[in-house]
Amino acid sequence: MTEKRWISATELTKEQKTTADTLAEAINVSPFLASLLVQRGVHDFAGAKHFFRPDLSSLHDPFLMQDMDKAVERLTTAMAKGEKILVYGDYDVDGTTSVTMFYGFLKTIYDQLDYYIPDRYIEGYGVSTQGIDWAAENGFSLIVCLDCGIKSVDKVEYANTLGVDFIICDHHRPGEVLPPAAAVLDPKRSDCNYPYKELTGCGVGFKFLHAFCQQNGQDLDLLYPYLDLLVVSIASDIVPITGENRVLAYYGLRHLNTTPRVGLKALIKIAGIHNALNIQNVVFGLGPRINAAGRIKHAKEAVRLLLCEDETEADDFAQEINKHNSDRRKFDTSITEEALAMIQEDVWLSGAKSTVLFKEDWHKGVIGIVASRCIEHFHRPTIILTKSNGKAAGSARSVPGFDVYEAIEECADLLEQFGGHTFAAGMTLPVENVEAFRRRFDEIVSSRILPEQLTPMIEVDLELDLEDISWKAYKVLKQMGPFGPGNMMPVFVSRGVSIAGKPAIMKEKHIKFNVYQDNSPAFTVIAFSMAHIYPDLMDGKTFDICYALDENTFRDKTTLQFMLKDIKFHPSTP
Question: How high is the pLDDT of residue 36?
């Protein structure tokens, strides 16, 4: 098992420590909590108030986004003239939530409207010729494109020849040339001065609707209930929970936990989520089920569920989508096993700094998941390819600190299409180019990746003595959420701790034990998939633990517990 690196956050300067001490007194929290806040850019009472109580009034003016005025004008004109508008979106969670939000809101004030999701297997990613043809044949003169389209220059040109305009709402990196659309909304445009660059596709769509409401005198209180969909996109697209995303996620979770729409309520029920929803259980409980519709069948099913207003019908849709998710898991497990075996058996791959695998009959819908699973075992940039419509189609995933998109971009001459982010991307290439791509990609990765990026790491916020941990501190800590990239659940290290009592193995692979340090109280530790540490625990060695704080409720009693991330045993004393 590869030993993980514990990377400590940069130690606070003398000046920052003084700031933390002043802040701790000002807001009446433990010194270690004040240190965590300073690490997150919170320095005074006003900053803490904004951090702990995000406010929708702090959202940026949507008209700061390049082309927003053009987008609002074109949509307003279309509605005034009674044009047919098609809401078009990608088949993943971000795309389907985007379509549901935009179509669902607009449908309350306009009825010349429909939505379209491309078929993953027939049409592929992004704007398709089939989709444009369908729009033109059915009399649509405006397509609002969400979570895709930023690189669809030729497709938008083709649409223009048919008299179909586009408004593009995307968040992926643009190419050198923008599509000739009526408006292109993307905060990552080089000429866009919008202050926050990390919105999801659904987030860009929300800002468009925000601007439309402002311009047309629509009550924003009618738009805010759609934040339950937006937080599902923020969580599932793994974007930073910082700045504007944090405000949107905060209020989105509030809606999700109090008044979720009927379709999401049905998904929450079938996912068996009983606790308050947070970013993590949205990612693992709701996201995969919404995604499964497009991976196994057609993503339109996810939109139908999310738009549903009848509880019985929503429960039926959720059952069907849950079945797709079970099928997805079977594909995921079997293909991951195959992929791991291929890596272990390939002599060239064993010495490579990257993984590129191709097999014709792998299910296209789960290859991104398989790439992530492979990284859990072989910590390096990974691309999984399968055959689709006569081409090799692939999904890439990366490791922290390495830009996989840039590496893929340098192989552009071998590809037909590609797009994505720093840590995840997709591509299509001729099957005959796969081997050349595999070699080129590894050369680029090998020349750029740092040795430490090939070793799994755990980012540690603070070193703590166990006596500093209390219920009061934990309750404040919980309010520092929503937790996710850019504002992760704090991770602590405590050194020289000892075991209290005998550890218990659960389900043959997990372990539960109690720890103490000097005169501290004992705390329960849960270590998933770490039963192998049992012998060392029984040897009576002292050890260092790396963990996050959590709570456990059993028989109406709630206790603090540690979720173990890693453990390092001290050498045995003679």
Answer: 96
